[in-house]
């Protein structure tokens, strides 16, 4: 049986140059050896810039190499728009809530 | 200062097909269905005000060539993409064959889409014209010369009638050429590329195409903020989405509308012009890249003003 998804709640309200490094470290730590299925919950995030989105890609590379998976949940409307404008909605599955992500991953 | 865009497409020319034109006509007719046009003026007004640009026009298909006119008698262009052919024809129409001119061409780099217009630049064939080609790469002349002669082209390079001069510019240097103060900065692109900051007539225009921006810290941005700072117009490589540029097209040497907006905001640029459009994008998609850039600015600006346009073949901006 596969491991249940790990939930990572993003601590930062704004992911920019001041916080992206911490966000990236948090992601990489949560991923472990890269094989984890990770739900990254953004419900507390009010804004994200390109440097924050890039941190997600760094984590995605580790995840892909380790046969893991990263999904994103709880995007506020403006943050979701940034994901869509950046076409990050094509890179990461987006779910409205952690529960919706768990359901989609078959771990509800 | 007047900026004229003769070519705005990236990588290779991307002309409209018959199918593309038909789709535009179809959309225009559908949008016109409920209108009654009393005269030709009413038709013109409908086209001007009611049709989106991607329906009534096209962003165009020629590769990079942008002219700067600061009021001097000599001509200044950035890059010799296929748009240079159209520029050359406009010069012939303006001056004819018997009035020699001086042309200054600044080369961002020597990839084919940035040099392919030169064999079709008619002023190069006319004795008396002077063409000075500026670049930071060591092999500018060889790249230009290689396009001529068998088996690629019927005319040997040596038969060009104009006086050609190749002028090396040191990266980081500031020089004065054709009345413009020119500052050059190295950019990240396969084989390197260079961005140019032009200052003249009290205005600043930055031409920064074919440049990938990969920033992890604020310090990484600084060379570009210095190049772009307080520019009246920033012409910026927005070929890919941010998502593509950091994933499947990482290291392909191009940037995005999102990075363009962020840098323009931080450098207090007045007008950002998206340039080097992805050749697989149709007009509607390039229009979306533009509207997305404007929306990203609205979301993130914090009240700061920034005009954002998309370059198209034939666009003129007067500052």
Can I get a quick summary?
Chain A has 108 residues and is an alpha/beta fold.
Which terms would index this structure?
A: alpha/beta; Transcription Regulator spoIIAA; four-stranded parallel beta sheet; two-stranded parallel ribbon; 6 strands; 41% helix; 19% strand; B: 319 residues; alpha/beta; Metallo-beta-lactamase, Chain A; 2 domains; seven-stranded mixed beta sheet; 10 helices; 14 strands
Average predicted local confidence, pLDDT of chain B: 96
Q: Alpha-carbon distance between the termini of chain A?
A: 15 Å
Which descriptor suits the 3D outline of chain B? Answer: globular
Report strand order across the widest sheet of chain A.
1-3-5-6
Going by CATH, what is the homologous superfamily of the largest domain in chain B? Ribonuclease Z/Hydroxyacylglutathione hydrolase-like
Task: Please provide a written account of the structure.
The complex is a heterodimer of chains A (108) and B (319). In chain A, helix 1 runs parallel beside helix 2. By secondary structure, chain A is an alpha/beta fold. Chain A starts with 5 loop residues before the first strand and ends with a helix. In chain A, the strands form two sheets. In chain A, strands 1-3-5-6 form a four-stranded parallel beta sheet. In chain A, strands 2-4 form a two-stranded parallel ribbon. Chain A is built from four helices and six strands. Chain B folds into two domains: 2-15 and 58-318, Ribonuclease Z/Hydroxyacylglutathione hydrolase-like (Metallo-beta-lactamase, Chain A, 4-Layer Sandwich); 18-56, no CATH class. Chain B is built from ten helices and 14 strands. The radius of gyration of chain B is 20 Å and the shape is globular. The chains are: A alpha/beta (108), B alpha/beta (319).
